[in-house]
Write a structure and sequence with these properties.
Layout lengths: L4 H28 L3 H6 L4 H12 L7 H8 L4 E2 L3 E7 L2 E2 L2 E2 L6 E7 L5 E8 L27
Antiparallel strand pairs: 1-2, 2-5, 3-4, 5-6
Length: 149
Amino acid sequence: MELKTRDKIIVVVLVIVALAVFFGGRYRDNHTHFTTEKWVSAVGNDRQKIVQNLLDRTVFPGMTEAEVKELLGEPEEEADTFLTYYLGIPQGIFGTSVDGEKEYLLISLDADGKATAAEVMTGKVLPKESKFRIIGENTDDAVVHPAEQ
């Protein structure tokens, strides 16, 4: 049985689509998969790409401050009750949002120095003592992240 030309075209298109899905998925996994090396060497908004994978795979509650630092490196900000890691500005369908708010990964710590929670936050909802907290209505009142100076 010989395939008609139309059937051959359909088979070729299906094979191309299957290959694109396979290799596209592998490309995406390689660029969104968290590793300590990717996190520590991240520039700009690179951490935005891998933070979800980090949060999906890591149980922060119960980790010591030293364990968090071993996993994520030194934070951009630390206090007795939290560690803050800069994530960047969220990416939209058409790239970085011009009016997007900067996001941070906040690791909350208890009195013993153990993590109690890990959450992504904007400058508006960071703890009051954070140097990255947005103070005014206008983002021009915000502290500029050191990497952007």
